[in-house]
Amino acid sequence: MSYWTNRHLYFQLLQAFTDNRLPVEDFVSQFNSQWRIDRDAETLAKSSTDFKMADEDHRTQKAVLDGLLSEIFSACDIFEPDESIRLDYEYDEASLKIFVKEILKNNQDIFLDPSI
Fold first, then answer.
1. Does residue 101 belong to any structural domain of this protein?
2. Is residue 47 part of a domain?
3. pTM for the full model?
4. Which range marks the domain in which residue 91 is found?
5. Could you read off the pLDDT of 42-97 as tens digits, one per residue?
């Protein structure tokens, strides 16, 4: 599989978190786990047909998705639920949720458009 192939799964995971249907710790764990699986699969399958999209628009959309998911992965990586040890640059639950909501709001077409 790949980030691109699993874009609908990522959307469902992001939506469940932002809709308060998935606790933040579960979101971080599930997102990071899926991201690592897809990262490893993409590394092993660079020449597969999944990565050979028909036109430049599709390649661009895939690159944007890869970048967005990497940003979310990085944000999850610096999530710290404990306020007493959280550093200034780390996310709490509310700020992580705002970050994810903004990505969804501005990029839903990449996650949902079946024609891409």
1. yes
2. no
3. 0.87
4. 7-41+59-112
5. 887 765 554 555 567 778 888 999 999 999 999 999 999 999 999 999 999 999 99
